[in-house]
Each structure stands twice: as C-alpha cells, then as structure tokens.
Design a protein that fits this description.
Helix content of chain A: 10-25%
Helix content of chain B: 40-55%
Number of strands of chain B: 3
Structural class of chain B: alpha+beta
Shape of chain A: globular
CATH class of the largest domain in chain A: Alpha Beta
Strand order of the largest sheet of chain A: 3-1-2-4-9-8-7-6-5
CATH topology of the largest domain in chain A: Phosphoenolpyruvate Carboxykinase, domain 3
Largest interface: A-B, 27 and 21 residues
Shape of chain B: globular
Radius of gyration of chain B: 13 Å
Number of helices of chain A: 5
Strand content of chain B: 15-25%
Oligomer: heterodimer
Chain lengths: 287, 99
C-alpha cells in the first residue's frame, strides 16, 4: 500500500492506494511526514462503469468554454463526481465518491502512461480542497494575497481584473506574495488567516494574517470605497468557490463571511496598475 | 415572472429556493443553484425589503403588502406602495436569471 500525507491550510490529507501515485509538482512542498488525517483519499486505478446511470446531476461546474465536473446525489446520500479531462474536455478522467461527513473520498482515476495514478489531478485537487472547507470555519476563494510585513491583504476580482498584476506590483516592491490566484481563508483563534494552495507551479506553503480584502478593478485613477454589512459579505462571497446546491454549504459560507467581515475590512478598489497603488492602499485604509 | 406582482404566492413558493442571512437590518439572499455559472446572482435587501421578504406569505395582494408595511413602519401609503414596487422590480429583474 502506498501512502502520501499532504497538508493544505492546516488540513491534513492522507492519500492511500495500492497503485503507485504521482502528484503534480505543485503539491511536493505540501507533503508532510506520516500524520493523523482530517481527510482520507483512497485512490483506485481505472474507472467504474456507468456509476451514475439513472441519476440527474445536482450540480454542474461548467462555463461557456469548459466543463469541469458534475455532481450526483447517490441513494445512500453520498456525493458522486464525474470529473472531466481539461484537455479532451468531454472525456471523464476521474469518478469520485464522497462520504456524507465530507471526510472520506474514493477517487477512481484513469491510469497515467506509466500505470501510476494521480488522485489529485486537476480539477480533482481543488474539488477536494473545496469540500475540506464546507464543514469548517473556512472558505476557498479566488484572490491574490500579499503580506507586507505588517498586514495581510487579499485582492479579489473576476478574471482579468488584475489579481496577478497586483501580485506583480507588490512583489516588485519587495513584499511577500502568498498566492496570486487561489487561497483558503481560515479562522484561527479570533483572527483570520489566508493560506496558499498547491498550484501548477512549485511554491512553499505560506500563510498570513488577513487584515483587509479588496475587490479590484482597473480604473483610470486610484479610488477606494469601504464596504460594510450585507454588501461587503455578498461582494466577497461572489469570489468564493461554491457548490450551492446544498443549503448547508451556503449557510456555512454566509456565517463565516458575516463574521469575517466584522474583523477584516472590505474595500472596493479601482486602481491604476503601477507602484503608486501601494501607497494609495496604505494611506486610504481606514483601519 | 411579471405575474409575480399579481400573485405574491409565487414569490412565497420561490423563497424555499434561496438561503438568507440577516446582517444588521439587511438581508443577504443566495439562490440554491445547480450551476456554477449562476453563482453571482446573490443580492441584498435593505430593511424595508427584508421586512417585505419576511412577511410576503401574509399577503395575497400588493395592497395587503402595502398595508402590512404601513402598519410596521411610519410611512404613508404612497411611500409603502413605492417601496413594494421597488422590491418587486428588484426580484423580477433578478429571479428570472436564476430560474
């Protein structure tokens, strides 16, 4: 039996399989020594035949360009996932089953060319990361995150609004980029922390306390507006990864964010993509 | 969906397809959905909208709702009617996107 332990945002995941496993290199720095596990992933080689016959999906993760995965509710209340190959697009690369406590996965994978399997092959890895958060004080969010030695700030927005640009500007000024695309935010004690997650490139696990969240867009001039209450919560929620077919998931996100927004300041930020945004942000934060 | 203004019971039934959370005087409303593309149709209601949302089952007609509103808040009928119209317009322009 082959076993690998990884830790993401403090969640410990045990991967076990009779087949040899091969992870994408972005996961390598997240591998930890043998440990207890919050999440168990049992990997299998080969796909079961027609596991969801007669079922309609309860959720489809797709956009105009790509289909990522479909979710089914099984008769025993477990969730079933058909995960699509992101190159072939229509081809199913994995079938997965998730226990009702969201802690135990069975992941069936098409074997790689050398007969190894990769149970976390994209987008399966981020799916598992999302379901780590549904029962925890945590959210998975599309955002970049910077730590300047004093404060942690996330910058979130739709594709093309400047998350990577923001990271580059702060990195060129010498500040620490926690991640420029996908984070897990967790409540730890009375504070909130932003953690990076494994990406397609290699980066070390990092975290920072979170002080401010900026909802960004490009603008002809730098401008900032503090958001409060329900507006702040909905604006941040819009950038969280969500499978909103289950009211429990929505309630968990709303509870988490409504508490987080009391502690973490939320701003709407229009910015000109140059280094002046750094001083502008610092001078105009109200807290 | 325009018929909703004439039949508030439809709105009452649609409420089960949303998750809400009160934040101060406001209400966050998130649709339950089967598709990731529709995740951003969430919206907020102010104190008046929140009150209407929470009491819509008690009204059969818009006039009923206007009456409930004037009983609760210190506003006249014209203001209440405008608030109800504004609330229903907001739902009518949002709900068709998610259903």
């Amino acid at each position: 039996m082959n076993t690998i332990w990884i830790q993401i945002a403090g969640f410990k995941i045990r991967l076990t399989s009779e087949s040899e496993m091969e992870l994408e290199e972005g996961y390598f720095p997240f591998i930890i020594p043998e440990s207890s596990a919050d999440i168990d992933v049992q990997g299998y080689s080969g796909l079961p035949e027609n596991p969801f016959t007669g079922l309609l999906p309860v959720f489809e993760a797709e956009n105009d360009d790509q289909k990522f995965y479909s979710i089914y509710r099984l008769a025993d209340h477990r969730l079933g996932f058909a995960v699509y190959n992101q190159r072939e697009r229509t081809d199913i690369q994995q079938i997965a089953f998730l226990s009702v406590d969201y802690r135990h996965w069975e992941v069936y994978s098409r074997p790689l060319a050398d007969n190894k399997i990769n149970p976390l092959r994209y987008p399966m890895g981020p799916i598992i990361m999302y379901y780590m958060t549904v029962n925890a004080d945590a959210v998975l969010i599309h955002a970049s995150c910077i730590y300047d030695g004093v404060k942690g700030r996330i910058f979130s927005g739709f594709s093309g609004t400047g998350k990577s640009t923001t990271s580059r500007i702060w990195a060129e000024a010498g500040y620490l980029v926690i991640n420029d695309d996908r984070l897990i935010i967790r409540k730890e004690g009375d504070d909130y922390y932003a953690h990076n997650t494994p990406m397609y490139y290699v980066d070390q696990p990092k975290k920072t306390i979170l002080n401010s969240a900026f909802l960004i867009s490009h603008s002809p001039e730098n401008r900032i507006k503090k958001l409060n209450g329900a507006i702040a919560v909905t604006r941040v929620l819009a950038f969280c990864i969500q499978n909103n077919f289950d009211p429990d998931f929505v309630n968990n996100n709303l509870a988490f964010l409504s508490n987080m927004c009391k502690k973490v300041s939320v701003y709407e930020l229009g910015f000109v993509p140059d280094s002046k945004m750094i001083d502008f942000v610092r001078q105009n934060e109200t807290e | 969906m325009i018929r909703m203004t004439n039949n508030l019971k439809i709105l009452s039934e649609l409420k089960s397809q949303f998750v809400t959370r009160a934040i101060g005087d406001e209400l966050v409303i998130v649709p339950l959905t089967g598709n990731v593309a529709k995740m951003n149709e969430l919206f907020t209601l102010n104190a008046t909208g929140k009150f209407i949302w929470e009491n819509v089952e008690k009204a059969d007609t818009v006039d009923d709702l206007v009456g409930i509103l004037t009983d609760e808040f210190d506003i006249d009928t014209d203001k209440a009617r405008n608030d109800v119209a504004s609330f229903l317009h907001k739902l009518e322009t949002t709900l068709p996107k998610v259903h």
